[in-house]
Amino acid sequence: MLRKIVIRRTLAAAAVLAVTAGCTAQAATPADSRGRSSAPATDATGTPSASDPATPSGKPSEKPSESASSKPEVLMARGTKSEQVRELQARLAQIGWFDDAPTGTYGSVTVASVKGFQGKRGLPTSGDTDTVTWQRLLGMTKKPTRDELAGRTVNKPSAKLDPRCMTGRVMCISKTNRTLSWVINGKVQSTMDVRFGSQYTPTREGTFSVFQKSRDHVSTIYHTSMPYAMFFSGGQAVHYSADFAARGYNGASHGCVNVRDKGAIASLFNQVHSGDKVVIYW
Predict the structure, then answer these.
(1) The predicted structure's pLDDT at residue 247
(2) What per-residue confidence (pLDDT) applies to 192?
(3) pLDDT digits (tens, 9 = 90+) for 85-108
(4) Would you kindly state where each structural domain of the chain is located, as residue ranges?
(5) Are 15 and 28 in contact (CB under 8 A)?
(6) CATH code of the domain made up of 163-281
(7) DSSP string, the chain
(8) Which of 132, 175, 182, 247 has the most CB atoms in a 10 Å sphere around its CB?
(9) Topology of domain 73-149, per CATH?
(10) Residue 24 to residue 18: CA distance in whole angstroms
(11) Residue 44's pLDDT is what?
(12) Residues in the chain with pLDDT values less than 50
């Protein structure tokens, strides 16, 4: 009787040690009625042996893990050259994420564009175009024309106006399409590309009004030129950006709404009045 108690205590202590000695806790292995482990027998390398009843052929199970089977398939990545890459680039251009002419080669510019697109939509920012990224892009864009694939034109989809933009005089700014639409009583007068602040200096969202205009403004904080500035919230303004014109979406503002078409923003500056509404939305 005493010997049985000692054996039981020894086995219990060994079981506790097996769980706590490793880096991660492992589930206890169930035993059959004869006290033998029901886990597959393994050789010195950890491979199931030929006597494993769960693998009668002697081969390890090839069933993929849940994480491996649920991982999206990568369709295109750095170094890929194909017509599908050209279509990818043309579709990204439609929504302002690709500024160059489509080449069909998946280079560093395409990687950066895909990363930006993924990040704004809460997807893993791998820079690779997997099935999830591709389907999301297809749902937001149209099949590119021959001129788009050749880089001769870009057909950007019209931004869906927020209901707050349907009355009065409004600079209606879509973060989804990265466009500014000048709207008067629900009718779009002009549209232009814009970019916003980084994650550390985000552009505020909501409904505002223009409280100050400054044609040749220079930032007192960053000492940078902000031509045609129209302030709507604290130090945040809609203004022309030479950096945006030169580098496109590879850069970001300090919270302002940057416009890269100098002629378009100059024309808009002459039309907008103090008190006009500014709506920034997703």
Answers:
(1) 83
(2) 92
(3) 999 999 999 988 888 889 999 999
(4) 73-149, 163-281
(5) yes
(6) 2.40.440.10
(7) -HHHHHHHHHHHHHHHHHHHSSSS--PPPPB-TTS-B-SPPB-TTSPBPTT-TT-TTSPPP-PPPHHHHHSPPEEE-TT-BSHHHHHHHHHHHHTTS--SPP-SB--HHHHHHHHHHHHHTT----SSEEHHHHHHHHHHS-PPPHHHHTTS---PPPPPPPGGGSSSEEEEEETTTTEEEEEETTEEEEEEEEE-B-SSSPPP-EEEE--EEEEEEE-TTT--EEEEEEEEETTEEEEE-HHHHHHGGGS-BSSSEEE--HHHHHHHHHH--TT-EEEEE-
(8) 182
(9) Muramoyl-pentapeptide Carboxypeptidase; domain 1 (1.10.101)
(10) 10
(11) 33
(12) 2, 4-7, 10-68
State the pLDDT at residue 240. Answer: 98
Please give the Cα distance from 226 to 203 (Å, whole number). 16
Beta strands 277-281; 206-209: pairing state:
antiparallel
191: tokens are: 């549209």
pLDDT for res 196: 94
